[in-house]
Amino acid sequence: METQWVLLCATYLIVVCQCKIHHTVWLPAGKQISLPCKLRALKEHESPERWVEQNEELEVNFSANSIAAWYDRLGRLIHVGEILLVHVAKFEASEISVTQYVLRETPPTEKQMSLIPEFRGWIGGANQLLQVKHIDSVTCIELQTSTVVGFRKPWKALQRKSRVGREVVFTFKIYVQPIIIWEYAVSSWILMENTSVMPRLVEEWCQDQRPYGRQFHQTCEGIYQERKTFLQPTLFGTSNSTSTIAFFEIGVGINLSARLLHVLADPASKELGYLHARLQHSLNMYILEGLENYIQDGDLAQKLVLATRTHYVCPPGSFTLQRKPVVINLTVDKLMNRTLETSSASVLIDHKLLCYPCPDGKATTAYTFSEECSDCPRGYYRGETGWPSSAGCLRCPEGFTTDGVGGKSIEDCRLNAGALTRSILRYVLHLLFALEKIIAGETGPDTQTRSLALEQRSAWAWLGRISGRVWIYCAIYCLVSSYLAAKAIHRLHVYLRLKALIRKQYGLLLRATMIGQINLVSHIKQRMKQDIKEDPNDTLAHGATVEVSGVRESIQSEKMKKSRSFPFNS
């Protein structure tokens, strides 16, 4: 009975030791993180405060005679050591393939696991950096060996029994985290004698926040300081005027991937927001306490006001929900209540530290927190596969453009030409595609078996039986026919143009002739009237009746003589 109980306990211990633990790691683009191998499982809780308290200590120390081996999703060895350094490259101005892969193709199998001094640094695990663009998961396995005392030869280990201990699977999810900047401003009269007080306080806090143990990254990414002035309207008596107020400003860039919980917390939930708020609350209290100790005057300390605001800056092509930073004034009274729930940093708990992609066909143009997504200009596009991208909208290939603004994919890029050229090229491409079908569907020799129909996979396969000479003659015939048809169409076009021109010239000639006749008739009438007025003995002028037969001829001959001697006189 005791033997069975011992066997059951041993089996249970083996199962517990060899159990798999799954962790989801949120990798911010452009960051470098350190991932320890031996971790406990996360404890879920609805409250973000309780979640942080329960998962504060996840790391487990390695037992003696054990080493960690890291494998990719294909089972290839990528690293040996307790800590895996992972770097996610920034996204470039190009589309990223949806295929996930590891950039390192060949695993370091050429180095054997031994204790030779030249390989100790490599086995230590802190010198290898895994470059990642897209990756599914990695697995860390703890390899434990039995203890052996003594060596047979120098630097040659004895054969020891080994077994697989705990196995931890890390699933990577890459997202874009906004650039986080904390800004603090205080009146310059407080730091009039020593302007290095604020930078020194921030640097001290950053040194205290540096992770301990096997972490290699800092919480503060950079510190800047400057002196600013602005005009404030004031009232003196009955006249309005302005006064200049100077203040000292300092900004701190925050890295929310320095600690283990930062990369295990879901950025879309309140867990990462709570960690962010707790960090800022710690710095707020540290600066207020430091300024109070620097002033050393109770009355002046009560007048101290420290203004703070938080910036979230997303790359082009994305935006954040927290666009306009809100200025919050901190006073020394805040030191009396140092709890996070009642402090000014508690508003950061609900902030989602994510950069959301703009809708298809839209993007931002610069690193900013207030710019909204606008349509991609003509000749650019942006779709689902174009995000993330550091350039926002992507340019169409050379020689192509879009019909309008807001292109959503590369299929919207058309040939930069007219409608006729596009239709001709579309026809040519369709013809080439049909010819490819003919080539792909070429059949073999005729046979009487039933499998012939199975070999003819294309509907165009019957065209493959036509000999090459027929295709050459048909091509020559088509070219000659096309040439003759083009010549005929050209000559017909010239004939129609010439006929239309002759018709226009003929019309103009008729109009000129008609106008000339009208002018001649009008001149003759005027001259006849003038001749009648000059000859009062003319019987026709006084209305006498005469014989028309003889007189008309004499009058006409006389008028013709006068018209010849005095042409076109009125």
From TrEMBL:
Residues 1-19 form the signal peptide. Keywords: Signal. Pfam families: Ephrin_rec_like. Residues 368-413 form the Tyrosine-protein kinase ephrin type A/B receptor-like domain. Residues 551-570 are annotated as: Disordered. InterPro entries: Growth_fac_rcpt_cys_sf, Tyr-kin_ephrin_A/B_rcpt-like. The keyword Ion transport does not apply. The keyword Lyase does not apply. It comes from the Eukaryota. This is Tyrosine-protein kinase ephrin type A/B receptor-like domain-containing protein. It comes from Clonorchis sinensis (Chinese liver fluke).
